[in-house]
Amino acid sequence: MVIYGTALLAACLLIGTVAGRVIGHSLGLESDLGGVGIAMLLLIASVTWLQKRKLLTTATESGIQYWSMLYVPIVVAMAASQNVCGALSGGLVAAAAGTIPVAACFSLTALLIRCAGDGQQPAVVVSNTTRSTHTENP
Amino acid sequence: MQEFIQLLNDVLAQYNLLTAFVFTALLMIAAQQASQRLTAGRIHPSAIAIALGLLLAALAGWYSGGRKGVADLPLLAGTGLLGGAMLRDLSIVATAFSVRADEFVCSGLWGILALALGLLTSFSTGAAIALVCGYRDPVSVTTIAAGAATYIVGPVTGTALHASSEVIALSVAAGLVKAVTVMLITPLIAPVIRLNTPRAAMIFGGLQGTNSGVIAGLAATNPKLVPYGAMTATFYTGLGCLLGPSLFFLIIRKILTTDH
After folding, report:
1. Distance between CA B233 and CA B18 in Å, rounded?
2. CB A74 within 8 A of CB B95
3. Which of A102, A115, B66, B135 is least buried, going by the fewest C-beta atoms within 10 A?
4. Does the pLDDT value for residue B81 go beyond 50?
């Protein structure tokens, strides 16, 4: 059933968020430390476990896949509900503090990508198999 | 007619999540058309849709004086739910369904290195900018530097250190500028820096760290890379909130007090 997939996904995010907040809280923080990352690892682990036992039906899978295909529009909705005026009203200090570190980090990204590519593990291009439904890929 | 418009308004506002689906789809259609007709497909439709979303958010914020972009307009309040943390995180986690677990493990070390370097770079350049702009007290310098990490690290650090509300507002603005910049610049820069593999996306997520910026930037570059970037970026804000008011504040205070 489709709901099993969505429920599995939702449960992973709930557990991940609780774990992230517990970790954050134990370090004296109000915020979540890696909740989404923990949820992703949980989902990968549980999907692998279910696939091995052939318990993952196509209907269950589509309950997860629907949400994974919706995220581009969700990100667009997120962009449309950002406080853009707040960003623009910060003046020169905010503009400088918001862009110069980004430029520095982009150069470091380029450098690290180059270094990482030289390692023993050649950088792998993402396989096209699982999510071929994305028509808007470049 | 007047009654009909009133009725339509009521339904659209009451079922605001459904209105948000239609609104977002219309944005996507507009972006798809603009990408094909105006740029011959060179600029990715998602990138245009995100830019369009930001533009509308700016217009809506200017019109309503609110802080949630188009979600401040009653008819489009559902956009705030659709693009809010809950459904965003749900769909981001769902993208992990198609990732390769081995790639996470192989690139994990690079991701951790990128996280450490990313926080250090944002904090140090942010602190340098605060100094150049005339701030001298360690609390304000650290808060502005934290804003250069993300718009959550900024206020969390500022509140912990009892920074003034103007400085906290400034750190939020800096973080927002960063998120918007990363969203818009990533698809343009990605081919140049070879941001086209899962490992590269993990490095990118760890270095830039701003969750919304990383996710939207990668979505506009290549949607398959999103889970990898989101994986490392998700640790960035938490780590920043941990290190900002503690380690980085102590370092900045040490530097500023020995200076004089």
Report:
1. 30
2. no
3. A115
4. yes
Q: Which residues touch B227 (CB under 8 Å, ≥6 apart)?
A: A40, B92, B95, B96, B98, B99
Inter-residue contact B230 to B202 (CB < 8 Å) = no
Cβ distance of B183 and A138 shorter than 8 Å: no
> Which residues in chain A are closer than 8 Å to B178, comparing Cβ atoms?
97-99, 101-102
CA distance A1 to A97: 49
**Rounded distance between C-alpha atoms, residue A1 and residue A38, angstroms:** 25
CB A36 within 8 A of CB A19: no
Write down the ipTM of this complex.
Answer: 0.79
Q: Which residues in A lie closer than 8 A to residue B118 (C-beta atoms)? A: 105, 108
Q: Give the confidence band of B127 by pLDDT, cuts at 50, 70, 90.
A: very high
pLDDT > 70 fraction of chain B, expressed in percent and rounded: 98
pTM of the model: 0.76
Among chain A residues, the shortest Cα distance to B150 is held by A98
> At residue B49, what is the residue type?
A
- DSSP letter (8 states) at residue A121: S
Set of chain A residues whose Cβ sits within 8 Å of the Cβ of B21: 73
What's the pLDDT score for residue B117? 93
